[in-house]
Amino acid sequence: MRAPRSDAVRNRQRLIDTATEAFATGGTGVPLEAIAARAGVSIGTLYNHFSDRDGLVEAVLGDALDQLTAVADAAAERDDPWEAFESLVLGTCELQAGDRAVADILGRRYPPPTGVIHAACAHLMDRFVEIIERGKRAGVLRDDLVVDDIGPIMWANARIAEASGTESPDAWRRHLGFVLDGLRT
Questions:
Q1: Cβ(84)–Cβ(93) below 8 Å
Q2: Residues 104-160: tens digit of each pLDDT
Q3: Higher pLDDT pick, 79 / 169
Q4: Cα 6 from chain centroid?
Q5: At 69, is the pLDDT very low, low, confident or very high (cuts 50, 70, 90)?
Q6: What angle do CA 162, 165, 166 make, to 5 degrees?
């Protein structure tokens, strides 16, 4: 098998760099045609490297997905059940507030059924289930909290972070504090 041509390697990297910037500020819905144009390549070249939007998103979000997994695992290792829950919610929301692409993938009702996005989201939700159950057993979380409540919390946080923008970049923290106060017994 031959090594890829140097221009193909450069084009792929330009697409990833351009998409990283575009997705972080505009979300994963930025038109692929706009990304190709900003990268200085044709849409055909984009599709030669990435079969679809999810392939490009996965290539761009590798580091962020690793960070989500690390946040989830670090939270699960905390001894105090409330601190575990709080750190998981805060850590996830912080990543989400800093990158619109992360907000978009966490706001999906159903992530892609395969791939690294699916694996990272499934791992995150497994940690939420574990930590919520531990918090309820310890009596620090409301008994009626279920893992399905996490999606709307993430969605609301993403919308608050998006709406407050640069004028009030930490507004989401204040509102999330109210939510966390309401979930604690």
A1: no
A2: 888 765 556 678 888 898 999 999 999 999 999 999 999 999 999 998 999 999 889
A3: 79
A4: 32
A5: very high
A6: 160
- Rg of the chain over CA atoms, in angstroms? 19
Total Cβ atoms within 10 A of residue 185 = 12
| Last residue of one domain, picked from the residues 35, 60, 85 | 60
Residue closest to 123 by CA, chosen among 71, 46, 78 = 71
Angular region, 139: left φ>0, alpha ψ -120 to 50, beta rest: left
Domain containing 162 equals 62-183
How many CA atoms does the CB half-sphere of 142 hold within 13 Å? 11
In this structure, are 106 and 83 located in the same domain? yes
Q: Give dist(CA 42, CA 7) in Å, integer.
A: 13
Which pLDDT score, from 0 to 100, does residue 116 have? 86
